[in-house]
Amino acid sequence: MRFGWALAGALLLGSMTVSAEPVQELRVLSEHPVEGMRGGNLSGLAMCGNELWTVSDRDDDQIYRLDTRDPVWQATAVRIDPPPVPDSGLPWGIKSRTWAASFVRGGDLDFEGITCDSAGNRYIVSEGHAAVLQVPPQGPSSWLKISPMMVREARASGMLLQFNAIFEGLAINPAGDQMWLAAERQNRGLLLIKRQQTVWDCDGRCVLLSEGGMEMQPPQFPKARPVNRDFSDLSLFNGKLFTLERNAYQICRRDPQTAKVERCWSYADELLQGNRRYAQNFGLEEALVIDADGAWIGVDNNFGPRADGEVRPIVWRFAAPEGGWSAKP
Fold first, then answer.
1. SS3 11
2. The Phytase-like domain covers which part of the protein (predicted)?
3. Residue 113: exposed, middle, or buried by beta-carbon count in 10 A (0-12, 13-18, 19+)?
4. I want to staple 220 with a disulfide (CB 3.0 to 4.6 A). Which of 31, 149, 216, 268 is the partner?
């Protein structure tokens, strides 16, 4: 029996992420509560030109433009009217649970990420249906035609098997013909699809990464414990893919073709300060934008108050790390 426990412990430790050296801590420059989001639950950010846009996972019929001129940001709703969602190949069990959950919380589509190309098209990922909605600068929105091979390959690799753990973020290149999608957890993973005439498909393979297992929460977290590895958003900057890894309270730079980690930065020191903590056993950050001067990180607090009583969604501005985002370890 003791051997069994020892073996189980060894397997757990083997599946946990162990950092060889401390990661550099990022520094908060400003904090911005967001008002005017009907459904709250800020779950994605995108910089389109000079404007920040966001989505709520409770609102199916609108996205939000953010007025960032004052310390408290105002969200202005922009109606999108999505057409009927196509069948992505998710099994009936997951789709039926999504449908049932929509009556309780709202948001059948469960929008979890937003990104933009250089032409101003906005792309929004639906976790509930593993689908991507394109919203052009003018004209009606439409769902991308994505090959069913994407979901099939992802599920064969151990992803998209759990309800409410499907796609949590996306990023697109400026030309608008390559897209990365982040599977949230159990397993978490990264996929790449490319536009081929009218259909988005795998170019050889869709899955760049699929990994399960546990990792330790940062030591700043009260009663830190092993939790599931996860991704909660993506950002593409300077030819590199940046992943928001909320349970580890870090941002990692990855190779966009292999998903290999090149360097990570922590934001635990700042967001786990006493007045900024939420009464949750895991990270809540779900929105990321990287630019030359720093990072925007937004929280989906599900209307839950943090320690100082603030209940509005928050977006923080972090300074770029020492040496910039391209710095080597």
1. helix
2. 40-186
3. buried
4. 268
